[in-house]
């Protein structure tokens, strides 16, 4: 329910009462309240769950950051199951754009020619 990006200002398009209404519908918060009310979980258990979730999220971020960057042209892969002439044109235009920055001899022509 926060901003979409760090440069976003949701107060430009959301009023406070709308945010409050949706916060009351937050399924995680509602489940926590139910678990506590029914005596299924207490604050200590939920704090432990929160800590474990934070650790797992940290591990996931580390693994994602260690992944190699994908080829920029791969964003055109699997958009349509049988391809699209317009998408092929956009891929070619973007490949030329990327190649205009090439300074080390690396280019994306093989990717485009290979149809990926």
How would you portray this structure in words?
The chain has 116 residues and is mainly alpha-helical. It folds into two domains: 57 residues, no CATH class; 42 residues, no CATH class. Helices cover 55% and strands 0% of the residues. The protein contains five helices and no strands. The protein is elongated and about 60 Å long. The C terminus is likely disordered.
Topology diagram in text:
Elements: H1 16-24, H2 27-37, H3 43-66, H4 85-99, H5 109-113
Count of extended strands: 0
Summed over residues and divided by their number, the pLDDT gives a mean of 88
Going by helix content, strand content and strand pairing, the class is mainly alpha
- C-alpha geometry: elongated
Query: Number of helical runs?
Result: 5
- Over the alpha carbons, how many angstroms does the gyration radius reach? 23 Å
What separation lies between the terminal Cα atoms? Answer: 36 Å
Largest sheet: none
Topology pattern, helix = H, strand = E: HHHHH
Number of domains: 2
Strand content: under 5%
The level of helicity is 55-70%
């Amino acid at each position: 329910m926060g901003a979409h990006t760090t440069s976003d200002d949701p107060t430009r398009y959301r009023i406070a009462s709308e945010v409050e209404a949706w916060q009351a519908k937050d399924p995680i918060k509602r489940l926590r309240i139910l678990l506590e009310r029914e005596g299924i979980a207490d604050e200590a258990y939920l704090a432990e769950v929160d800590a474990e979730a934070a650790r797992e999220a940290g591990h996931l971020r580390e693994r994602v950051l260690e992944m190699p960057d994908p080829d920029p042209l791969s964003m055109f892969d699997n958009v349509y199951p049988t391809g699209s002439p317009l998408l092929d044109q956009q891929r070619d235009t973007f490949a030329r754009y990327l190649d205009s920055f090439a300074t080390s001899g690396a280019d994306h022509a093989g990717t485009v020619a290979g149809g990926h």
